[in-house]
Amino acid sequence: xxSTLTEKTSTSTLSRTQARKFFLFGAVGLLILAxxxxxxxxxxxxxxxxxxKKIIPGFFNLVHVRNTGVAFSIFAGTENPWRVxxxxxxxxxxxAVIFFLYRESRPEERVKRVALSLIAGGALGNLVDRVxxxxxxxxxxxxxxxxxxxxxxVADMAVTVGAAxxxxxxxxxxxxxxxxP
Length: 181
Hints:
Elements: H1 2-46, E1 52-56, E2 60-67, H2 83-104, H3 110-133, E3 136-144, E4 147-148, H4 154-171
Antiparallel strand pairs: 1-2, 2-3, 3-4
């Protein structure tokens, strides 16, 4: 009987560990999704399309633009009827890969898990826009003089920070899941 009790305790602990691990994924991902969608809703409500509000002259504006492409407006302006379904499908595939990487991560790989959670939340935020509007709402415009960084949004920031953290986790020696014995 004691071995059965030990097995149940071990299984129960594993389940709680897994639950905590996935709570982080869901909490961070949903927080990013909610923040992204709330800020975009404000832009849609407060700013007409193609308008801008100077916040820090010579450095930062709020704008209301639409990105029909992907990051940094790659593939923007393409009027192919398959553009939205293909980009949405690629996002779903990327989310599946992110979920797999997260599931395979070890509990001590905290930086990697936060990174993947940020990337997933950002991908979901832009996927919602793509499905709803056929494009992504961008509104943060940083620039110096005439040199503008492409406009972006909260989801883009989460993906960028997540990718940087993922790079840090790999540099710190957190092994990719396919290298685990």
